[in-house]
Write a structure and sequence with these properties.
This protein is α/β, with parallel strands linked by helices. It is built from 4 helices and 4 strands; from the N terminus they run αβαβαβαβ.
Length: 104
């Protein structure tokens, strides 16, 4: 929850009267929600490229790509491999799913 957009979305969701769990890569791990008893209408998760690489069936209803920059090149064979990892969030979309890219 360390990045501003997820915090803003959480506030917007709460103003609509919905309960949200916000966590993931930064902040509260998803496992805390899965193993706990917190009620949530929606999950707002930050998921890293590293996590996407190990979760090929992860398909959120809405995906938002906030950042592609030349970091983590020590883990990936090329910048394109890093981009491909990030874009895997949007592979094989089902009806009713959508994505959003922030660029620039």
């Amino acid at each position: 929850m360390g990045k501003p957009p997820p915090r803003r979305w959480w506030g917007d969701i709460e103003r609509l009267g919905r309960q949200a769990f916000v966590g993931g890569n930064i902040g509260t791990p998803l496992s805390h929600w899965l193993l706990g008893n917190q009620e949530a209408d929606l999950l707002v998760l930050e998921v890293s490229s590293f996590q996407l690489d190990t979760a090929p069936t992860f398909r959120p209803d809405v995906g938002v790509l906030l950042n592609i920059s030349e970091d983590h090149l020590d883990r990936y064979s090329s910048f394109q491999a890093y981009v491909d990892s990030k874009l895997s969030l949007f592979l094989a979309p089902d009806a009713g799913r959508c994505g959003h890219f922030e660029y620039g």
